[in-house]
């Protein structure tokens, strides 16, 4: 039976430490760190994520401003909110919850977020810095995954990390962060042939497919470290992209769903907000 990587406990520890940092920030700079959260429409999963982000901010002592726009909001409406937050000196971070409704161009909206307020690490500048292995704001879920791997002292240098999924939010950036850790990386996706043959070679397997219990035990090498990024709502409740019950007897470590990557994404988001606030103060912005 694999050891469980307890994302919930790790995230709680990160948030406890950040609470002290945020207090010190307030004493030093005489203001609260401020995060603006924009949610367009009523995607149920997005509503849950946004509520959890606002709750985490409250716990850490970060002020949050919520902007909830209806599904019918136009691209211009969203643009105007982002532009005014971009110009507002009291705002340290801007988070646009994705996905946006289909009639709104995500790329265009994200390009309006100034890189120094881009707490999600989604802008071209921050993605570029991640790819160049430069100091910057890394995407939250990938940063949380690296934190989890380091928390178990997983050997990364020279190990084969296989990522299933090539999204801008998880697959691509986590591959870059693993490469920075000197892993050999393979990125698989929906067009990959002989997927199982590749995943069976993984020392570290990252499942970000978006399909419930997609990764079965026969796709996993004995002793592999398995990180499940999926959050799928099924009739039997929340489940990951990994068939946990089958895979747990094969892996050396496994992250559960819920209680794995999810809470880590929120904790690393809080770290990014803090980082943006400090950097803005240091840059006199
Ligand atoms: N939608 C799914 N994951 C994320 C995330 O990490 N940040 C934002 N803004 N939207 C998301």
How would you explain this protein's 3D organization?
With 285 residues, this protein is an alpha/beta fold. It folds into 2 domains: 86 residues, Rossmann fold (3-Layer(aba) Sandwich); 123 residues, NAD(P)-binding Rossmann-like Domain (Rossmann fold, 3-Layer(aba) Sandwich). Helices cover 42% and strands 16% of the residues. The protein contains 10 helices and 11 strands. It has a 6-stranded parallel sheet with strand order 1-11-8-7-5-6. A 3-stranded parallel sheet has the order 3-2-4, with helices on both faces. The chain has a two-stranded antiparallel ribbon with strand order 9-10. It is globular, with a radius of gyration of 19 Å. 44% of the residues are buried. Guanine (GUN) binds next to strand 4 and helix 6.
């Amino acid at each position: 039976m694999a050891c469980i990587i307890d994302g919930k406990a790790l995230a709680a520890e990160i948030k406890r430490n950040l609470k002290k940092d945020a207090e010190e920030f307030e004493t030093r700079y005489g203001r609260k760190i401020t995060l603006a959260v924009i949610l367009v429409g009523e995607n149920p999963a997005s509503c849950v994520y946004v509520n959890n982000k606002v709750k985490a901010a409250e716990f850490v002592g970060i002020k949050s401003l919520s902007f909830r726009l209806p599904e019918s909001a136009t691209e211009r409406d969203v643009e105007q909110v982002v532009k005014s937050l971009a110009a507002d000196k009291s705002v340290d971070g801007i988070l646009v919850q994705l996905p946006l409704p289909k009639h709104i161009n995500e790329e265009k909206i994200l390009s309006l977020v100034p890189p120094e307020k881009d707490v999600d690490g989604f802008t071209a500048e921050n993605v570029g810095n991640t790819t160049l292995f430069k100091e910057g704001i890394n995407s939250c879920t990938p940063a949380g995954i690296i934190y989890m791997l380091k928390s178990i002292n997983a050997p990364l240098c020279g190990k084969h990390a296989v990522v299933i999924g090539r999204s801008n939010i998880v697959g691509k950036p986590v591959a870059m962060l693993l490469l920075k850790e000197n892993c050999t990386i393979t990125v698989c996706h929906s067009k990959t042939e002989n997927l199982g043959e590749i995943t069976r070679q993984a020392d570290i397997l990252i499942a970000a497919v978006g399909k419930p219990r997609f990764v079965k035990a026969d796709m996993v090498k004995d002793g592999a470290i398995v990180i499940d990024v999926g959050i799928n709502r099924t009739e039997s409740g929340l489940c990951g992209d990994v068939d946990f019950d089958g895979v747990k007897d094969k892996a050396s470590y496994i992250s559960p769903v819920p209680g794995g990557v999810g809470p880590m994404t929120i904790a690393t988001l809080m770290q990014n907000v803090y980082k943006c606030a400090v950097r803005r103060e240091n840059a006199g912005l």
